[in-house]
Amino acid sequence: MGQEKPKITAAQRRLMFGSIFLMATSAIGPAFLTQTTVFTEQFLASFAFAIVISIIIDIGAQLNIWRVLSVSGKRGQEVANEVAPGLGYVVAFFIVLGGLAFNIGNVAGAGLGFNAIFGLDPRIGAAIAGAFAIFIFLVKNGRTVMDVVTQVLGALMIMITAYVMIQSSPPYGEAAYRTFVPEEPLAMFIPIVTIVGGTVGGYITFAGAHRLIEAGMTGKENIRFVSHAANYGILTTGVMRVLLFLAVLGVLSQGAILSDENPPASVFQFALGDIGMQVFGVVLLAAALSSVIGAAYTSASFLRSFHDFFDKHNNTVIVIFIVFSTLVFTFVGRPVTLLILAGAFNGLILPLTLGAVLLASRKKKLVGDYRHPTWMIIWGVIAVISTLIIGILSLGGLAELWTG
């Protein structure tokens, strides 16, 4: 008789779902909604192929990072410093800078969500969202509250989008067929690397891993638990993308013409009628608010190992991060150049950090007698190459914008 697998306790289950949804909702932000809609409009049913390939690459990246970080018990910047002295500081700089810039966009998205639902000035809505996010980290047992809030917001987005998908009556058969037989497979390259960067690029893939480390789910004995959480996180994001893809495909198949200014909103309006804009506002607010929480928490976690102040006053650092992001949008507006720079950083951070993790997986000083599977390393290399390409493309577009 083999040994029985240890049962997952209620507290561990809550932690698992918390880390899953922290990662997933960090990925499902305003940019996620727009990218998925625009690519579906461009490639129609064939975009299903890109989604499936991206999910496979995402799992390879996330499994490598979550497993190695968990076994070592060290956060991403600490692992990078072990691989090459000083690399962790470089990684932390880009993570925090990119996370801050993206958070300004997330706060803006929350403001637009309030505007769509209640007609509030987006800046007032952004201030309300910022205050709510800050409240989460100030209350007692704030991490538990964060876990619950991200789960509720994530489930809300998925349920609403599933309803819109059903209402839009997409051509399921055509989508299933084009998943395996896309019309222009070579044209899918840029969409694939773009949505990979948006799902596991920058701070996003570290969100759940750092949450598990903070909760003490480390060491080889927890590797199965961590692997399940990593896979479920990517699959949760994938489910949301598939539902939104099918919803967009459905309205397009009925002859809808999407708005250039706000493509996702026009999908909801076409499918649901007059109330569609308010419903989209709920989804946008949930996506933006959960991303604000995830970006602030994860970015601050990259500072914790550099000085006792950042570790001891972690919640204060998170609050300052959210306050600054909210004030920039509220009083200055959306800094487009900064967001474009952050997009370039997002594409370059993952190959840097994942490359360091792959090297760390062979360092006994970090992982002890743990043997990282070769197939995971191969998938990790694929993810490094893919995201490096999108980073280069982002920088190329930035240079063109700058010179133009």
Automatic annotation (TrEMBL):
InterPro entries: NRAMP_fam (IPR001046). It is a multi-pass membrane protein. Its main location: membrane. It is found in: Membrane. The chain crosses the membrane at residues 15-33, 45-65, 86-104, 124-141, 148-166, 186-209, 230-257, 277-303, 315-332, 338-361, 373-399. This is Mn2+ and Fe2+ transporters of the NRAMP family. It comes from the Bacteria. One of its GO terms (molecular function) is manganese ion transmembrane transporter activity. One of its GO terms (cellular component) is plasma membrane. PANTHER family: SOLUTE CARRIER PROTEIN FAMILY 11 MEMBER (PTHR11706), TRANSPORTER PROTEIN (PTHR11706:SF2). It comes from Lacicoccus alkaliphilus DSM 16010. One of its GO terms (biological process) is iron ion transmembrane transport.
